[in-house]
Specification:
The chain is of the alpha+beta class and 371 residues long. The chain is built from 8 helices and 21 strands. Strands 7-8-9-3-10-11 form a 6-stranded mixed beta sheet, sandwiched between helices. The chain has a 5-stranded antiparallel beta sheet with strand order 2-1-4-5-6. A hairpin with a 4-residue loop joins strand 17 and strand 18. Helix 2 packs parallel to helix 4 and helix 3 packs across helix 4.
Length: 371
């Protein structure tokens, strides 16, 4: 449905030096997929979205939607925004304050350049879409009288009314409070699945991306640094940047003691002793590696408590220096040698000051080669 090839759009800073933008992004979307561009501010994700929409003209690259070329820097093709058959939801929603809910949703049909729609057809399409987003009872209400969540739904309805081939969403939930944002994640994913529309979603919220995406492209400094399914991105980060950006993590340093083949477990020497690690990629002996261990994969026990020993389980001794109650879980900060290890568990297994043993499986200790 969407093919982006070697897309480049670089801005120039006030001093004439190269600024932000996107530097050679490439990806392909399947029909009906929800694809997320995830990264920190200034990484190039919104620039990529705006280039796909036709709001920015790339320096180089190629963009095709549904097999039809929208932009090609070599051939000079550059289809205008209004001829790309896309729907777009902005961070600000951009709701018309002088219009009713119905008229906001009907607006794309009334100004359509493709063909004229009869009033009967407009009413049928708009009411069907408003029902889909749960706003059919508010059709005659002035748009400013809607709540934040309802305005977000209206923005979605307006984008969906014209039945676009591609839906582009630029941080559409960022203006909502935390609880409503979580509710709307579920709602948005439901709407996307029910309509079957292919969607590109831009966000800097890792939890949001993991919750709704079929695939995620993590961006940094204008480049896609990892592309994969949410579980793959989280459990098998390709770099220290991805490991640190996606959720909470522990990063330890060490040296590989012998050659490691891809997808095998090998020992790594650290300042806390030897740890068994999973190597997603092959690495040579004496390579410097970073060890990624997610806090929820670590078990914590008071010293002298009963435990079963497993040869594929790593162990560290330490003591609790901080305990934080998070509601659904407890987070501990454990001093283990010169390192501070974050542990997250469902129940309070220790308290501040306790001597503890940390255990974590070799398969959950992911080793990344460092430069």
């Amino acid at each position: 449905m969407l093919h982006v090839e070697n897309l480049k759009k670089q801005y120039t800073a006030f001093d004439g030096r190269p600024g932000g933008g996107v530097l050679g992004a490439s990806f392909t979307l399947r029909e009906g997929e929800l694809f997320t561009l995830l990264g920190p501010s200034g990484c190039g994700k919104t620039t990529t979205l705006r280039a796909v929409a036709g709001l920015e003209t790339p320096d180089t690259g190629r963009i095709a939607i549904g097999g039809q070329e929208m932009f090609n820097s070599q051939s000079g093709v550059n289809v205008a925004l209004y001829d790309r058959n896309i729907g777009m939801v902005f961070q600000s929603y951009a709701i018309w304050p002088h219009m009713t809910v119905f008229e906001n949703a009907a607006y794309p049909l009334r100004v359509s350049r493709g063909r004229k729609h009869s009033e009967r057809e407009i009413e049928t399409k708009v009411m069907r879409t408003l029902e889909l987003v749960g706003l059919n009872a508010y059709a005659k209400r002035p748009a400013p009288q809607l709540s934040g969540g309802q305005q977000q739904r209206l923005a979605l309805a307006r984008a969906l009314t014209r039945e676009p081939r591609l839906l582009l969403l630029d941080e559409p939930l960022s203006n909502l409070d935390a609880q409503l944002r979580e509710q709307m994640r579920v709602e948005l994913k439901r709407l996307q699945q029910e309509t079957g529309v292919t969607a590109v979603y831009v966000t800097h919220d890792q939890a949001e991306a993991l919750a709704i995406s079929d695939r995620i492209a993590v961006m940094n400094e204008g480049r896609i640094v990892q592309l994969g399914m949410p579980k793959e991105i989280y459990s098998r980060p390709a770099s220290e940047f991805v490991a640190n950006f996606i959720g909470r993590t522990n990063l330890l340093r060490g040296t590989l003691t012998r050659n490691a083949a891809a997808e095998t477990i090998s020992p790594v020497a650290t300042d806390m002793g030897e740890l068994l690690c999973l190597f997603p990629n092959a690495a040579a002996a004496q390579s410097k590696v970073a060890l990624v261990i997610r806090p929820e994969h670590i078990a914590i026990r008071k010293v002298n408590s009963v435990e079963e020993r497993d040869p594929n389980t790593n162990r560290l001794a330490g003591h609790v220096i901080r305990e934080i109650y998070l509601g659904e879980m407890v987070e501990y900060l454990v001093q283990a040698g010169a390192n501070e290890i974050i542990v997250r568990t469902l129940s309070g297994a220790a308290a501040k000051g306790d001597a503890v043993t940390l255990t974590f499986a070799a398969e959950h200790t992911v080793a990344l080669a460092t430069v």
